[in-house]
Amino acid sequence: MHSRVAVTIAAGGLIAIGWTSFDDGTAAAERVAQSKPTELRYEVDPFWPRPLPNGWILGSVTGVAVDERDHVWIVHRGAASLTARTENGLGTDPPTAEFCCRPAPPVLEFDPSGKVVGSWGGPGDGYDWPESPGGIAVDARGMVWIAAAGFPEATPRGGGGRGAQTSSPPPAPGPVDSHILQFTHAGKFVRQIGKPGVTGDDASRTSLNRPAGLDIDSAANEVYVADGHGNHRVVVFDAATGGYKRHWGAYGGAPSDANRGPYDPAAPPPKQFRTVSCVTIAKDGMVYVCDRQNNRVQVFDKKGTFLKEAIVSRATRGNGAVWDIALSRDAAQRFLFVADGTDQKVFILRRDTLAAAGDFGAGGRWPGHFYGVGSIAVDSRGNVYTGETFEGKRVQKFAPRP
Amino acid sequence: MILPAKRNLLIGAGFLAAIAALAFIAGALDRAAAQGTVQAPKFEVDPMWPKPLPNTWLMGQAIGLAIDARDHVWVVHRPDTLSAAEAAAEQNPPPGTC
Predict the structure, then answer these.
(1) In whole angstroms, what is the distance from residue A339 CA to residue B84 CA?
(2) Which residue has the higher pLDDT, B61 or A28?
């Protein structure tokens, strides 16, 4: 019944995503009714990516990016997020399975057809591989940047949820991730900013606290860091030297580490960020910041001057609604895609007004559904790619529908 | 010099021989294939089945599957294997709509 409703509404020019649209009952139907017409319509491509080689399986996917050649890059948590008994049968010692599976290397590069054409990552000499990666970005020079988002200190390691039993005790917590990493396209280490276990506070010029995401201003050669799960700021470094440039908090003010207490949907917008989970730079120089657990997007210029904000899904609690942001690839970048890993949706906002323009996706495991959708990117043809963390563990492609 | 009639006869006989040879080879190939491994049906996934569940339902571990006389598919699953984050809409207050 809901599918039929969706199709009818789609014919009227609203966002649609084939049969996966608006199938989650009343709440979604109400949202559809409130959405504004737009020409954007998406449908999942259930055959992208192609099957992974070598018995590889993905762990929790924490970052997705698209490079200049429309190759899709992901980073995932690997063995630390896999269930030994059912997902890592070839990666355990001794192996418990004959055919399936072993963790794929942490960084995978897919060509536009969905074939793996590059893979690397993991611990190495001269740098600290994240205990848990966060976002990934590829700059105009082809350099690959990865945020080390880590775990809260008290979090047990390993897969989550009942039924995610591991056959061995989870590894002991390591030093808290507090850094970002730069590699070449081929995975050769270039630079690290910050050091795990040497946590920087909201005023630090040398270190971070569980940075969640990053983006690169290739023209200015600056790296913008969403800092993060532990801190409450955007901080900018010189991409060539790693030197500190500037930082700011919510509304462009000084960030504070003061305890915010739980999110209250009825309260006025907080003066501080709660969780800075992404930063995305538009071609026109506007900087979009995810304040995840405050359910909002804040917009700045490159100097950190506050411009505007928008609340997305105000009533959402839990892990919050604004996990990652991608911009459409038309010349004007007219739309914002917001990944919401709590409501399991991608919200589409108009970039000029930040008004809701639609949404797609729903909770579940079938094609076009989401579980922990926390990362998002768009290629030059307008295809949208999503990464799912926690027990979602996949990357999906959504193609614009004519 | 060969007369035209005899030449045509020769050409015709040649064709017949060629066809007979091809038929023999094809038959031999068929017999060889029949004596080889039994070919199981080939399968491909239908990623659009089943349709999305209504009412924001989510399945836990699916541990039993059966098909009845009407080709209806029955499944039994373990709802309590869902994590709190997955069953968000069940919680009070619900953290999200899913």
Answers:
(1) 20
(2) B61
Distance CA A385, CA A64 (A): 7
**Complex ipTM, two decimals?**
0.74
pLDDT for B36? 65
Do residues A395 and A49 make contact, with C-beta atoms less than 8 angstroms apart? yes
Residue B12 pLDDT grade (very low, low, confident, very high; cuts 50, 70, 90): confident
Q: Long-range contacts: A279-282, Cβ < 8 Å, 24+?
A: A279/A213, A279/A214, A279/A215, A279/A224, A279/A225, A279/A226, A279/A234, A280/A215, A280/A325, A280/A326, A280/A327, A281/A215, A281/A216, A281/A217, A281/A224, A282/A327, A282/A333, A282/A351
Q: Which domains are seen in chain A, by residue range?
A: 2-400 (2.120.10.30)
pLDDT of residue B96: 73
pLDDT tens-digit series, residues A1-33: 333 333 333 333 333 343 333 333 334 433 433
The answer to whether A105 contacts chain B (CB < 8 Å) is no
Q: How far is B17 from chain A (nearest CA, A)?
A: 49
Angle between helix A26-34 and helix A2-11 axes, rounded to 10 deg: 10
Q: What are phi and psi of B7, to 5 degrees?
A: -60, -45
A47 and B50: CB-CB below 8 Å? no
Nearest to A19 among B51, B88, B95 (CB): B51
